[in-house]
Amino acid sequence: MLLLLLFACSENGLIAKETEPAGDSATPLPAIKVAPRSVDFGTVIFGNSATATVHVRNVGDAPLSISDLSVGSADVSFTNISPVLAPQEVVDTVLTWTPAGPGDLNDSLEVSSDDPDDPVVQVELTGVMTGGDLQITPASYDFGTLMVGESATMTIDVANVGVGPITISDWSYDAADADLLVIDAGGLATMPAVLDAGASTSVVVEYAPSTEGGDEGGLTVSSNDPDSPVIVVTQNGMGEADPCNGYSQHVTILLTADDAWEGWLDGVSFSGPNQNAWNAFDTLSWDLPCGDHTMALFATDVAHAVSGVIAVVWINGVARYVSGPTDWTMYDQRPPAGWQDVTFDDSAWYIPQVCSSSVAWGASPQPFYDQGAQWIWWTPSCSSLGEAWFRLNFNVTP
Question: For residue 225, what is the domain's CATH number?
């Protein structure tokens, strides 16, 4: 070792001093490196999760102390890492984003350490949550058979049943001709259209056959629904030529009931001067268009004894329908609202019974007997029921 001798004066003379040579003055320090510095979770459906890995490395010469990891959003979780990293050591934290509600992710992961130059490192976190779920109903619809020149409409419900907004970017209606077309686009009239969670709109389709034969159409809706970006719902119908060529047909109904009746034709109430007299009948007439019609009757028996209904329907002077075990249906308790309408489903109703004897009425209803009409009621004895409901579905043609 090389010694430097320094001399100093003192009262007693010169004194020699020994010193250490100057060494390396640089102090080892930790240094943090985080990668990547931004994470995009992409598009995540509500209820699902997306993950990403962030690497934390000590690129310094001294141990690195990690004091904290934090994220502002409660929807992002992460795995813990070692609190101390040796020089050149790398650890990973796995981030998981599980969106719990509407809205995109714009947040950051903060890594705090004792790096003197970069004590807090931020990793940008982004993501898009799509929680919308587009539902279009009905998936298919049959208009049935319409006469050429008639028309009918149906409504398509377009609803967002998810928890986030849905953006409808485009829609179209495809049909061979204008017999099927959208007459009201509702909330889809302007594109793009946004439906918030729980919101809905309606599209109205009209069917007006111009010729005989079948028609088909379909509504196509495009959106950012991750599961069903394109939804197609279809409609169809059958056009039939009008055998009446637009002319009405003369319909006459002859009827009576023991003891009384109330009547409806296609849901519209009608009455007669003798409707409360079993031994007298009523003759009522209408001019009706070709097609299906319904006569509904509510018959009552005040005495709860012998009861019955008897009727004849003439179309253009020809007796086409008479009371009996065919064409007619009946019910023994008050039916639901709308039972008088043509569209009411009476398939669960009963077939009326023909009264086993007409002695109680004698020969007074001779016009009915001449046409083959029979008294009908709940039981062949025509008793044991004080009131009954009847329907006759009939078709008017020339």
Answer: 2.60.40.10
| 277 and 229 co-located in one domain | no
Q: Residue 365, preceding bond cis, omega within 30 degrees?
A: no
Dump pLDDT digits (tens) for 242-273. 777 778 899 999 999 988 999 999 999 999 99
Residue of 78, 76, 130, 132 lying closest to 106 (CA atoms) = 76
Q: What is the pLDDT of residue 16?
A: 41
Those residues whose C-beta lies under 8 Å from the C-beta of residue 111, and which sit 6 or more positions away, are: 32, 34, 56, 66, 68, 69, 120, 121, 122, 123
Q: Based on the structure, what is the number of domains in the chain?
A: 3
Residues facing 35 on adjacent strands: 55
In the chain, % of residues over pLDDT 70: 92
Q: Identify the DSSP state of 380.
A: T
C-alpha dihedral (318, 321, 322, 328), degrees to nearest 10: -170
pLDDT for the residue 4? 39
Find tokens 């009425």 and name the residue.
Answer: 361
Cα(303)–Cα(305) distance, integer angstroms: 5
pTM value?
0.47
